[in-house]
Amino acid sequence: MSKYDPLREHLARLDDVVWAAKLADLEQIIGSGLPKSAREHRTWWANSGGSLVHQNAWLDAGWRVERTDLPRDVVVFRRLRIGGTSLATRQAPHRERKLDVRNAAEKALSKAMPDLRQPVTVTLRAEWTSLGEVHKLPCSSSSIPMGAAVVRIVFLRDGKPEAVLIDTDAVQPFYRALRLELKELAESGAQSVLHAGLLGKLKLAASSPMEIDVVQAGNAWLLTDGRGRKANLEDMNERAVVAQLLALQERQSGLPVRLQKV
Q1: How many CA atoms lie within 13 A of 90 on its CB side?
Q2: Do 133 and 39 belong to one domain?
Q3: Residue 113 lies in a domain
Q4: Domain of 217?
Q5: Nearest CA to 181 among 202, 205, 199, 193?
Q6: Per-residue pLDDT tens over the stretch 77-90
């Protein structure tokens, strides 16, 4: 029984991928103070593995120390494995070793696979550009992008904002079609949601106020494990990934959203 077992159990219960812990929080979890070296030396938090009981506490739980900020009394842990822990692996029943009869190519592939199976964190940084109110923004406006983008139309339903995200390879033709449909409805006096046409597809009521924003080329970055690059919105598959990540972010922020490809 180690004094750091409560830390291992705490980490094993966490659902997060990253946990920034204050040293005081760690002391509260383990029920006693950390040694002086833990507050003064970064090497105390090294992920050497298997040599010291305090290191085993987070490694056995499937975590590693990503960085330390000892002047601010902060240690940042990152999850190593999303499913299973090294502790579970150690406790797996012993199996008799079998003779390896694989050929050289099979062995080379098997050797490469562990690195390829490491957890990957993919995130999106995107900036919305406001175009304005749909009913007031003419389709001839120079602010409307020509090329591919993810469009967001925010409207009110029962007094509360909702959104539809549109994955499109050409914003201007899409917006022109939307404005022409609104104009035809206004001239005919029909203001309800259509069951055909673009408004019907997007489930938009012509009478509702709408704001339109875009994430266009150059305003979206895909980040993988901290390394990023600009998303290629002209590539339909990459644009779809951006749209899906944007939709997920909106839902997590509490905004009801639908994703539509046009």
Answers
A1: 9
A2: no
A3: no
A4: 123-261
A5: 199
A6: 988 866 544 444 44
